[in-house]
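Design request, tokens follow.
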């Protein structure tokens, strides 16, 4: 029983909160949908799909140091793979029940996430390719997946300006993804994983993140402006101001002392950005309904 408890810990279900912004973003750009479908999509993604991906990654990485959401991860056991396969099966089956296309997209997401970690493929070893795969599938692909899950057809999802909103989600992930690797350079070097952050170095990672996040924000604000959603511009800027404040301060402190480039500050950055961006898009949804 303790083995399964440790395995469940490695699934890192609470860590799924860091991927919530894409879900709320996808909902915020849709005018009409059934709430029960949105709730079902949320539960499938955040309680099954993301934890299954986390668990599979932990199974093959067997990290000895801190990982996202766990400062001291327990030892990996075979029970972890049992839970991963169970979560995979439940996610795909429930996804198909909701929508055959949604179920197919969930299955594809799970397969790609396994290619990222599986020792026979291990996309994680290739910095540019792995960055593209992660930011596309956790960004634009997930954006599309959410909207398909709540009832939109693929043709509706792929219309403009919706595809540009999907691109925004990938740019945001492109900014945050290398930051999640910034404190793991020694661990990644030990395993032979040449991550993008490792290649860029600490200063390069901060710069890359700043440029990607700035491009994503600029494109989003432009889309809001050209689609007569000026109110959303103010909502987004107000709620994301704490992210800019923390990120800028963290980056400046790192120029003087690399010891601040650690697990604690990385997780703090993740928490602030996830919460603030989620609140921004939730506020946009609420404002559209009640104002």
């Amino acid at each position: 029983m303790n083995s399964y408890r440790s395995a469940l810990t490695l699934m890192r279900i609470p860590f799924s909160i860091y991927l919530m912004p894409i879900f709320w973003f996808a909902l915020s750009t849709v005018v009409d949908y059934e709430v029960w479908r949105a709730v079902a999509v949320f539960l499938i993604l955040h309680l099954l799909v993301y934890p299954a991906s986390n668990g599979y990654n932990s199974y093959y990485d067997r990290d000895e140091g801190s990982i996202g959401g766990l400062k001291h991860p327990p030892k990996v056991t075979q029970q972890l793979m049992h839970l991963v396969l169970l979560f995979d099966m439940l996610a795909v089956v429930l996804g198909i029940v909701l929508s055959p296309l949604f179920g197919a997209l969930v299955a594809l997401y799970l397969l790609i996430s396994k290619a990222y970690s599986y020792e026979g493929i291990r996309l994680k070893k290739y910095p540019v390719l792995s960055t593209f795969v992660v930011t596309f599938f956790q960004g634009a692909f997930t954006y599309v997946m959410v909207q398909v899950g709540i009832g939109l057809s693929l043709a509706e999802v792929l219309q403009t300006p919706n595809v540009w909103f999907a691109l925004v989600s990938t740019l945001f992930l492109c900014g945050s993804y290398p930051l999640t690797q910034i404190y793991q350079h020694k661990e990644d070097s030990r395993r032979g994983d040449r991550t993008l952050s490792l290649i860029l170095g600490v200063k390069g990672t901060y710069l890359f993140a700043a440029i990607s996040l700035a491009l994503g924000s600029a494109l989003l604000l432009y889309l809001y402006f050209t689609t007569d959603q000026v109110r959303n511009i103010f909502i987004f800027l107000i709620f994301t101001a704490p992210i800019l404040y923390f990120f800028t301060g963290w980056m400046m402190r790192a120029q003087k002392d690399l010891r601040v480039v650690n697990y604690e500050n990385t997780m703090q950055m993740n928490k602030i950005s996830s919460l603030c961006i989620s609140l921004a898009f939730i506020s946009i949804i609420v404002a559209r309904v009640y104002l």
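Comment from the thread starter after seeing the answer: thanks! The longest helix spans residues 196-226.
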